[in-house]
């Protein structure tokens, strides 16, 4: 994705839809900063070129190789922050695993049958019970309204 020399003052909001990008060029733009959160979901990004005045998103620790030339900074090959030896492994709650979510960003995904807040709920949503209660309430209310309102419908 080549966005070089587009006179960008900030990261375009539509960039969030390009999470499948492998190469991204933001050079020759008057960008004051590039927030790391702008690259959430960019797990396939292998090469990112930013203006020289800016740092690589997530910092230089988030990339295997950071190269600086006359007018740009090239950030190549994202590191997996979940198994980084430089820092402590990302603390995910019990019943979840750490997964990369872009340069320097992580997410905790629930494992197996666990779901919900902090992966504390086990099994699946009780669809049969929920559907039964909802169906019974709907039928009962419908019969009640039909019975009370039908004599008004027969009147001329």
UniProtKB/TrEMBL annotation:
Domain of life here?
Eukaryota
Transmembrane region(s): 125-146
Source gene? Answer: Atraid
Which cysteine pairs make disulfide bonds? 110-119
The UniProt entry, under PROSITE patterns, shows: EGF_1, EGF_2, EGF_3
Q: Provide the protein name.
A: ARAID factor
Q: What is the organism lineage in this UniProt record?
A: Eukaryota, Metazoa, Chordata, Craniata, Vertebrata
InterPro entries, sorted: ATRAID (IPR042350), EGF (IPR000742), LRR_dom_sf (IPR032675)
* Biological process, per Gene Ontology: positive regulation of osteoblast differentiation
What keywords tag this UniProt record? Disulfide bond, EGF-like domain, Membrane, Transmembrane, Transmembrane helix
User: Which residue ranges does the record assign to the EGF-like domain?
Assistant: 78-120
Residues making up the signal peptide according to the UniProt record: none
Query: Could you confirm whether the keyword Phosphoprotein appears in this record?
Result: no
């Amino acid at each position: 994705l080549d966005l070089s020399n587009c006179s960008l003052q900030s990261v375009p909001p539509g960039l969030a839809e390009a999470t499948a990008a492998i190469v991204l060029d933001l050079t020759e733009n008057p960008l004051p900063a590039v927030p790391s959160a702008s690259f959430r979901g960019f797990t396939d990004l292998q090469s990112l070129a930013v203006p020289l005045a800016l740092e690589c998103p997530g910092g230089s620790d988030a990339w295997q190789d950071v190269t600086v030339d006359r007018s740009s900074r090239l950030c190549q090959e994202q590191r997996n922050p979940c198994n980084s030896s430089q820092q402590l492994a990302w603390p995910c709650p019990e019943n979840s695993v750490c997964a990369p979510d872009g340069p320097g960003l992580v997410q905790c995904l629930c494992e197996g049958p666990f779901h919900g807040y902090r992966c504390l709920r086990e099994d699946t949503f009780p669809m049969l019970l929920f559907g039964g209660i909802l169906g019974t309430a709907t039928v009962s209310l419908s019969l009640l309204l039909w019975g009370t309102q039908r004599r008004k419908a027969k009147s001329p």
